[in-house]
Amino acid sequence: MATTINDTLKTRYAALQAERERNWSPAQLEGNARQRRLLLERFDPAAAAQPGTELPPLSFEEVDGDTLSLDQLTGDGEALFVFFRFAGCPACNIALPYYADTLFPGLEQRGIPLVALSPQPSPLLREIKERHDLPYFVATDADNRLARLLHISFQPDERPSPAPPGWIGEVTGTNSWELPQPAFLLVGPGRILRWLQVSPDWLDRPEAEAILHRIDQHRG
Q: pTM of the entire structure?
């Protein structure tokens, strides 16, 4: 999968899909496409948390051992959160370094901290931060607490019982099928939700330029 630092996120995901089409079975391809299609069809933006919502005083364990609280992160202004599934997720391993290169510098200029959240325990999440030398926070949304409050978590449609070896709860260390849908969340002072964008299809996530544009709209 050959990509360059100047490739858009869309281009990088197209390369991932092309690689899968070369190497995956038709059943694997259809199963992946079907789940993404169902999540997209079912997603109702009106059912997700809306701007103006006051979030509870949650805290998150960062992979380096610090505790990040919503109050601390938004004490001087906005904070941006990006939800991802888990450290071994191929699509997340494309998105997070892309955002490090293209989104994080613009956020730094605006004085906005960036926090990547996954339900995975922080010792397992450390892997993805170290692999890509991510310059922003990576932390655990334990039990999908914030994702549930935002109504952006989901469980795969196919959940065999008993769960087979290597099932998602084993991979993530959560013992649960539940995952967050990729999303961006902008929170302002007082823990007030300013903006939420959800990507039900995890291979269709926003470009950095679009995220910065939306942030500037809400700050203006």
A: 0.93
